[in-house]
Design a protein that fits this description.
- By secondary structure, the chain is an alpha+beta fold.
- The chain is 15% helix and 22% strand.
- It has two helices and five strands; from the N terminus they run E-H-E-E-E-E-H.
- It is globular.
Length: 121
């Protein structure tokens, strides 16, 4: 993922719904993925973290050659976060793009799956 281009379609995105200490860098967030989320920080999944303040976001992911840490602070307003709970929730790549842009990501819907035709007409 190149900042500004958005995540690739089909990438798995997991949001840690509980705020983390934003002084953590990539090693601290990778440890949080492993210990708190019980997941592999080197799996290619994009992990999204929130601060206590709604205007900050960090993403951590493995791009195949190293860990990438993306951080953003909105100058006005805040990100639309899910309710604070323990655990994770999944977003689509399109929903993540909307979240990063500060938009209402809950209104972004994934396209419906279309049944494969059985015959050629």
């Amino acid at each position: 993922m190149i900042p500004g281009s958005g995540p690739p379609a089909g990438v798995k995105v997991l949001v840690a719904t509980k705020p983390v200490d934003f002084r953590r860098g990539m090693d601290g967030l990778a440890r949080a993925v492993k210990e708190d989320l019980k997941a592999d920080p080197y799996s290619g999944v994009i992990y999204v973290f929130r601060a206590k303040r709604a205007d900050r976001i960090k993403l951590l992911y493995w791009d195949g050659s190293g860990l990438v840490l993306y951080a953003k602070r909105l100058e006005q307003g805040g990100f639309r976060w899910p309710q604070i709970t323990d655990g994770v929730m999944r977003l689509s790549a399109v929903q993540l793009s909307a979240l990063i842009a500060g938009m209402e990501w809950t209104r972004v819907m994934a396209p419906r799956r279309t049944r494969t035709p059985q015959e050629v007409s």
